[in-house]
Design a protein that fits this description.
The complex is a heterodimer of chains A (258) and B (302). Chain A has ten helices and nine strands. Chain A has 258 residues and is α/β, with parallel strands linked by helices. Chain B has a single domain, classed as TIM Barrel. Chain B is built from twelve helices and eight strands. In chain B, helix 6 runs parallel beside helix 7, helix 8 packs parallel to helix 9 and helix 9 runs parallel beside helix 10. The chains are: A alpha/beta (258), B alpha/beta (302). Chains A and B meet through helix 9 and helix 10 of A and helix 4 and helix 11 of B.
C-alpha cells in the first residue's frame, strides 16, 4: 500500500451540516484505515469565525491531542480582518505551521486584492505554503443564508509570476475554474492543484495531458467528501506507478523538503 | 415471433424487457468484470465487493466520435470500476429543449450504442413534453428494443405541467421506469427544470407508476424529505458532489430499498459517485441493495 499525504482535510464542524466523520477520533481512525500517513488540516471554524487566532489555537491543540502524528495543522489568515498580518506572523513564527489556508469566498476578497497579494509575498519570504480554497461547496447546494460568490481565479495568471518562489496550492479548484484557466495558472511551476473536486471519467489521466504530474496532489476534502472519492479516482484513472506515487505523496513531500 | 403471453397481452415491449432482465440477472458477474481491470492497481482501497448496476450514464464527455466508439470506451472504464451493467440515455450534444428531430437523432445514437453489448446495456427513451406526439412516437419506436426500460425527462418542461400526462400514461402502460431529473438549486433552477416537490405532484396523479427522483434534487436534505411519504418515488444518487452523509440520510429516511445507484458519468467520475455508497456508514446489505438489487427489482416490478 502506498503512503498517502492528503493535503486537503478539515477539522471541526461544517457550518450547515454534521458530517459522519467530523469527530477528530473518527476522522483519524478513518484516515489511518485507508493508508493516510499525513493529512494537512484546516478548520471549518475559519469560514465564519472572526477570532482567527482562537480558531488556529484550537486547530493546533486538536491536531496534537488527536492527530497521532498524522494531522498537520494549516492555520488560517483572513486578510480582510484588521491587523491580519499579526495572524500570519503567529502562524509562522509562534505556531510554526507548515503553511496557511485561505478562504477568499467566505472572507470576501478577490484574488487581485492588494492585501491578498501582500500576503502571498509575506508567505514567499517566510517559505510558508499557501493553500487557497477555491470552492467550499457547489454553489447550487449552498445554504441560502451562506450563498457565497464564486472566486475568479484569473487574476492569479498575472500575480503568480511576481512570487516565483511561493509554494502555492489551489484546493478544490476544479468546480468553478475551467481547465483552460487551470492550465494557464499551472504554467507557473510553483503552483499545485489537488484532485478533490476534479470530476469526469478518468479525469486525472486527462489532467495529466495539460498539467505536469509534479503539480498534482492528493487531496480528498474529507470529511466533507467521502474519502473514498479521491482514492477511487486514482484507481479509475489507471495511472502508472510513478505517477501515482508522485500524486499520492512524493509531490507533497517535495514541497516540504524544498 | 411473439410468445403466447405477448399475443394475449399485446404488450410485447414490457414482456421482452422482463425476459431481458431475467437473462441479464444471470449474466455478468463482478468477477468477470475484474478480469478486465487495468494492470496498475494504485489505490489502497477497492471498488465495491458487490456488482454495480449504474442507472445513470451518458455518452457525452466520453472519448470517441461515434456511439459505438464512445460506448466501447465507456464499458472499458466501467470494467475498471466494477460496474457490470449500465443504463444510458440522451445522446450528444446536450440540448435543453430538443426538437422532434433531435430527439430521434439522440435516441438513435443510444440505440446504436446499445448494440455494442446488448447484455450489459439498458437505456431510456429521451422524451420532451413540449413535443408530446413526437415523444409518444419515439416511445413506440424505441420500445421495440427490448433493452429500452424507461423514459428520461430532463429540463425542457417542468414535470407538473399537464402536457406530460399522455407520456406518463404510455410509460405506465409499457411498464417503463419514469426518470425525472430534479434539482433545487440555491442559485435558481432553469425555467423547465423540475424539483422533487413538483415530481411529487406528478407521482400523486399516477400512484401506480414508478418514478425515479434523479439527483435527489441536488440538495438532498430537501429532496429526500420531499419524496419521503410517496413510496412510488425512488431516490437516485447520481450527479452531485460526493458529500458525506447523503446516502446515510436517504437510507434512514426512505429505507435502503428506495435508494438506487447512478453515477451521471461521463460528466461525473464513476469514482466520486460510487464513493457515496461505498463510503457511507450503512450496512453491507444496504450497499448491495443500492448498488444493484433495488434497481433490478424495480425493473422487474415494472
Amino acid at each position: 500500500m502506498h503512503s498517502i499525504i492528503d493535503v486537503n482535510i478539515n477539522l471541526s464542524r461544517y457550518p450547515t451540516r454534521r458530517l459522519p466523520d467530523d469527530e477528530p477520533e473518527l476522522l483519524v481512525r478513518k484516515l489511518k484505515s485507508v493508508g493516510v500517513s499525513e493529512a494537512w488540516a484546516g478548520s471549518f471554524d475559519a469560514l465564519l469565525h472572526r477570532d482567527i487566532e482562537g480558531v488556529n489555537l484550537r486547530l493546533k491543540k486538536d491536531c496534537e491531542r488527536f492527530g497521532q502524528r498524522i494531522l498537520i495543522p494549516f492555520g488560517t489568515v483572513n486578510p480582510a480582518l484588521p491587523d491580519w498580518k499579526e495572524d500570519f506572523h503567529r502562524c509562522v513564527e509562534k505556531h510554526h505551521f507548515r503553511g496557511i489556508r485561505l478562504f477568499p469566498a467566505y472572507h470576501r476578497y478577490l484574488l487581485n486584492d492588494k492585501r491578498f497579494v501582500e500576503l502571498l509575498h509575506l508567505a514567499e519570504d517566510a517559505g510558508a505554503i499557501v493553500q487557497v480554497v477555491m470552492t467550499v461547496e457547489d454553489a447550487r447546494t449552498q445554504h441560502p443564508l451562506l450563498s457565497v460568490s464564486k472566486i475568479d481565479s484569473k487574476p492569479l495568471i498575472d500575480i503568480i509570476p511576481g512570487v516565483p518562489n511561493l509554494k502555492l496550492m489551489l484546493l478544490n479548484a476544479f468546480r468553478d475554474t475551467n481547465m483552460n484557466t487551470i492550465t494557464k495558472i499551472c504554467e507557473n511551476k510553483n503552483v499545485s492543484v489537488d484532485i478533490a473536486m476534479l470530476e469526469g471519467v478518468q479525469k486525472i489521466r486527462i489532467l495529466l495531458e495539460k498539467v505536469s504530474v509534479n503539480q498534482i496532489l492528493f487531496g480528498s476534502y474529507f470529511p466533507f467528501f467521502y474519502i473514498e472519492s479521491a482514492l477511487l479516482k486514482m484507481k479509475e484513472s489507471q495511472l502508472n506507478s510513478d505517477d501515482s506515487k508522485k500524486i499520492f505523496y512524493q509531490n507533497a513531500k517535495n514541497l516540504i523538503s524544498e | 415471433m411473439k410468445t403466447d403471453v405477448e399475443r394475449i397481452s399485446g404488450d410485447a415491449g414490457s414482456c421482452c424487457r422482463r425476459d431481458f432482465l431475467a437473462t441479464t440477472l444471470a449474466g455478468l458477474t463482478l468477477a468477470s468484470c475484474n478480469q478486465l481491470i487495468g494492470k496498475e492497481d494504485v489505490s489502497p482501497i477497492n471498488y465495491s465487493a458487490f456488482p454495480i448496476w449504474d442507472s445513470h450514464c451518458h455518452l457525452s464527455s466520453i472519448f470517441g466520435n461515434s456511439p459505438e466508439e464512445k460506448m466501447t470506451h465507456f464499458l472499458k472504464i466501467a470494467d475498471v470500476t466494477g460496474i457490470e451493467h449500465v443504463v444510458i440515455y440522451m445522446g450528444w450534444p446536450f440540448v435543453l429543449d430538443p426538437t422532434p428531430e433531435i430527439l430521434k437523432k439522440q435516441n438513435d445514437q443510444v440505440l446504436r450504442a446499445m448494440k455494442v453489448n446488448p447484455d450489459r446495456i439498458s437505456a431510456y427513451v429521451y422524451v420532451n413534453p413540449n413535443h408530446v406526439d413526437a415523444s409518444l412516437n419515439e416511445m413506440d419506436r424505441c420500445f421495440e428494443n427490448k433493452g429500452m426500460v424507461g423514459i428520461k425527462l430532463w429540463v425542457a418542461s417542468r414535470c407538473d405541467e399537464t402536457s406530460l400526462a399522455p407520456i406518463i400514461r404510455k410509460a405506465e402502460k409499457q411498464n417503463a421506469v419514469i426518470f425525472q431529473h430534479t434539482w433545487i438549486k440555491t442559485t435558481g433552477n432553469l425555467k423547465g427544470e423540475s424539483t422533487p416537490m413538483q415530481l411529487v405532484e406528478l407521482a400523486k396523479k399516477f400512484p401506480e407508476a414508478k418514478f425515479i427522483c434523479g439527483h435527489a434534487g441536488g440538495v438532498w436534505e430537501l429532496g429526500i424529505r420531499a419524496i419521503r411519504p410517496y413510496s412510488n418515488i425512488f431516490v437516485e444518487t447520481a450527479g452531485s458532489s460526493p458529500t458525506a452523509g447523503f446516502v446515510e440520510m436517504a437510507v434512514r429516511e426512505l429505507g435502503a430499498e428506495r435508494v438506487i445507484f447512478g453515477s451521471d458519468a461521463g460528466g461525473r467520475s464513476f469514482a466520486s459517485q460510487i464513493s457515496k455508497v461505498l463510503g457511507a456508514d450503512i450496512s453491507e446489505q444496504d450497499k448491495k441493495m443500492i448498488f444493484k438489487d433495488n434497481y433490478q427489482k424495480l425493473l422487474m416490478m415494472n
